[in-house]
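Can anyone check this?
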Amino acid sequence: MFKGSMVALITPMRADGSLDEKAFAEFVEWQIAEGTEGLIPVGTTGESPTLSHEEHKRVVEICVEVTRGRVPVIAGAGSNSTAEAIDFARHARKAGADATLVVTPYYNKPTQEGLFLHYTAIADAVDLPLFIYNIPGRSVVDMSVETMARLAKHKNIVGVKDSTGNLARPLHTKRACGEDFIQLSGEDHLAVSFSASGGHGCISVSANVAPRLCAEMHKAWRAGKLAEAMAIQDRLVPLHDAMFCETSPGPVKYAASLLGKTADHCRLPMAPVAASTKARVRDAMVSVGILN
């Protein structure tokens, strides 16, 4: 159920910063039509840090309503407050999401035991599949393979979004947690390499603007068409580079605006992207073939 090309959805906003619910609904529909195999609303790419709790929950509701079960919805439900994460996870279950994505608690830097207790509390409180989101570059803490193996024994903890950038990690995670533990890459550049190391798919930023190419790459890989998958990977490299030449989601939000999907507005403290970034994003989209 959870595999292949999945997208860390942007949250469309109007130029004044208000949520554009219509644009978001249309964006979700477009993603499904283009072949995206899973939708992740209100992650970091969806600007969850600057959404109110009401906005956060509304975005999840819209995503589930539009999707209508055609592809899985993994709702962002992370927080550095365990009680808050439980509230988001309970709402995700009530809204009809298929799973939650819960980031390692940021800023307060819990120990490995703290991480174990945090995720266990959420998984105990909400009967819904839970993906651990391990992204030390943003949260500062790095969940060890040993801690993940302890958590993988819980019936509701089913996988990980791995944004460590370490291609040895999925090999060790597979040995420690078993082949049924679902490993999703959080690094666009490593999507194919991660699959070769035991991964099941990628939660992608670039798929916001190149959903069909990303989906075709994963489907080619699963079909054993390795040369085709590698060719698409190579084609996408300039786009991946451009999406992270400034702090995400600034570049991808601008890229989506070039496709007419949303305004390029991000809420403060995310600044408008620089003119040089805009030029780089546009050039990359042209070179990849998704913009004339």
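Reply from J.R.: I decoded it. The longest strand covers residues 157-162.
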